[in-house]
Amino acid sequence: MIIRLRAVSHAYITEKGAHQALRDIELTARKGEFVTLVGTSGGGKSTILSLIAGLLKPTRGTIEIGKASGDRRAAIGYMLQHDYLLPWRTILKNVLYGLEIQKKICPEDIGRAHALLDEVGLSGYARRYPHELSGGQRQRVSLVRTLITDPDILLLDEPFSALDYTTRLKLEDLLFDLLHRYQKTVLLVTHDISEAIALSDRIYVLGGKPGRIVKEIHVPESMRPISPLSRRRMPAFQSIFQEIWEVMERHAATDTEHAAYGT
Amino acid sequence: MPQPTPNTPRMAPNGSNGSNTSRGFNGLLDADGSYGARGPQATDDGTRPKSDKAELDLNALYNRHRQTERRKARHIRIVQLLLLVLFIVAWQIAASRRWIDPLLFSTPEKVLAQGVKLYQEGTLIGHIFTTVWETSVGFISATVLGVFLAALLWFSPTLSRIIDPYIVVLNSMPKVALGPLFIVVFGSGALSIIMMAISVAVIITTLVVYGSFRETDKNWIKMARTFGASRCQLFRTIVFPASMPAILSALKVNVGLAWVGVIVGEFLVSKRGLGYLIIYGFQVFNFTLVMLGLVLISILATLMYQIVAHIEKLSMRFKM
Question: The ABC transporter domain covers which part of the protein (chain A) (predicted)?
């Protein structure tokens, strides 16, 4: 297992009080697996990613990140909901941003940046500025910025939710293709059930308040190698959709308020 | 005056409707001047759509829009100049007809003569140079120091919370009241004047820039942290560049504030400079000299502001 969460609970503490976001999360991902967390907005999905990325410390429980190869701890790349490209940097400089933070840029990196931009269909945009690009193009730049740091694990926080539907479908295919080619382990977070089924090998359904895992669904082996767009047309797609939908409905209906306010 | 804009209509001599893209492009090249000789022949009739429906001549529309805008801008400029001329003429007439006391308010004529006289004596440039130099050093140092202090506060939130009330006190205090202290400490020379200019501008710069540092988009910071950015890297790659507009606008405000500090400083200690010119004119009851000082200050302060504003525009080519 490259990611393993054991009994992870998390509470946010603010001036108004403490608020529990997650309860007893058990979650694993194998090397090369595409795992999706699906749940409603505000259900604590992004919190899980922030915990795995180390941006937050779990209030209780443990998070284990496995070895990538040899003794090296797996590197994590985190792609956020919006691109958050820096407007004062060119596209190339934005792509190189993560590398720049992590190490010294060498000339090969610039070559790789151009190659990756080509691969996502943005050749010739390297010297442009972010405001000259469309939302879909910007999110592709953001993907390249994450990929170029060569992470073993990719955390994707609703990366397409801000895009229009057709752009989203196209980007799903692009992402699926790239990640399978580079053998990345992916943990995707989304509220979109069909996106979850279209992309993943395994799906966790997050429900209730505070959020907990209410169901784990294995996408059939036969579906896994198929691209997202084609998956959406398969008959099995509908039945999985129905299954997830019912689970989510049930947990939305029997929702109990566990958040404790005080202190 | 060569007008590069309205070429396109003239370039379509045999077809008033239906300019296509290729003709539009030729129009553009012609506007550039480099293909002007080709004239109407450049129109490629073969590619013109055969239907009767007229396509919009976007080039012509754009050119017309630009022309209107330019004409409007020119008119405004003319009115602005007229107002200035009117003011000067009214001043001259009012003084010569004794509607206002020419002994107190002088006249444009006398102010000009006074300026020329000082120039010929060779002292005018020295006065101007002294004041401009003091102001420039003042507003640049105030901005640099303010940004430095703001960075210090950003790096240590605890420090910023501790000294917050003191900053409020310093900010509310009229800094020119420190004048006598400065003179005692820094001597009665340019240093005191520059310190005065800095003291007027530095606290507000610190507050404004620190505010901008703190209001840096949290998502950019989160993005940087996903790559493992340290606090130092955050400042260098996100917080500081994101606050560049605020810093440049502080620079612009500081030009004005530094003038206040420098002129008051020159009132107090100087033997040279435009502030000295004014205070000297006041003491010998030569109000033409006072007026000359005022006119020169307003011209120079405006020029300096415009230069800084221009630098700001140049460095802000991207959109935030």
Answer: 3-233
